[in-house]
Each structure stands twice: as C-alpha cells, then as structure tokens.
Amino acid sequence: MINVYKILEHKWFNLPKQLRFLLVGGFNTLFSYFLFLALTLIVNYNLSLFLTYFVCINLSIFTMRYYVFCAQGNWAEQYTKALSTYLGMVAVNYLALWLMIECWLWKVWVAQAVFTLISTFVIYQLHNRINFRT
User: Fold this and answer.
1) Is residue 7 part of a domain?
2) CA distance 73 to 129
3) Is residue 48 assigned to a domain?
4) Pick from 57, 63, 47, 85: which is nearest to 12 by CA?
5) N or C: which end of the chain has fewer CB within 10 A?
6) pTM for this one?
7) pLDDT tens string 61-74
8) Is residue 68 part of a domain?
9) Is residue 106 part of a domain?
10) How many CB atoms lie within 10 A of CB 121?
11) What does the pLDDT read at residue 134?
C-alpha cells in the first residue's frame, strides 16, 4: 500500500503546478462552497460565511502548501502569511456579498459563486508570489 501511495505521489508532483492548483483548489472550493450553502439553510449568509472560512482556512493552507506549492522553509511564517491572505479574503468576501445581496438583490448562491470564481485567480497569485514562494 505504501508503494502505491509513493507511485501516486510521484505522478502527482510531476503534474504542472497550475494543474495541481486547479485540482486541489477545486476540491477545497467545492467543499467550502457547499458547506457555505448548507450553512445558509441554518443561519444567515454572514454567519455562514464566517463559519465556512473558520472551518476551511486550515484545510486550504495545508493542502496548498504541500500538494500544490511543495513549499519548504519556515512553516510558521508561511502559515501566518497564508492566514493573513485568507483573513483579508473573508473581509473582501463579506463586503462583496453585502453589495451583491443587499444592494443588487442577487441570490446568495449566485453571489458567492461569482466571488469564488473571481477570487480563485487572486488566491493563486498570492500563494504563488508571497505565501508559498519556492
């Protein structure tokens, strides 16, 4: 079983970084988005947004650091940078949702989907250039 994992890991890390980002980021994004939607059935979208980020930030940081950027070096420094990125993103996400939902009267699921698509490029650039620069 360990040999199978090593073979798969070797094949994985030979994929281009951008493809690994799309696969890992896609998983993280879908998980986060559907958690957000599920939580909106229970609480309002503001609380759902914060609960989702609270749960998903660490998942994203650890999977991006290891499976996408293969980052080496000071773990705590990279974690702090990535955490700062995600905290900034939650603030921008909160403002964007307020604008799209309260002012433009978009449905919650559409507003979060639009923000998620736009923020994907920003997150990749911040991780690649600052947080997990290798």
Assistant:
1) no
2) 15
3) yes
4) 63
5) N
6) 0.86
7) 999 999 999 999 89
8) yes
9) yes
10) 9
11) 63
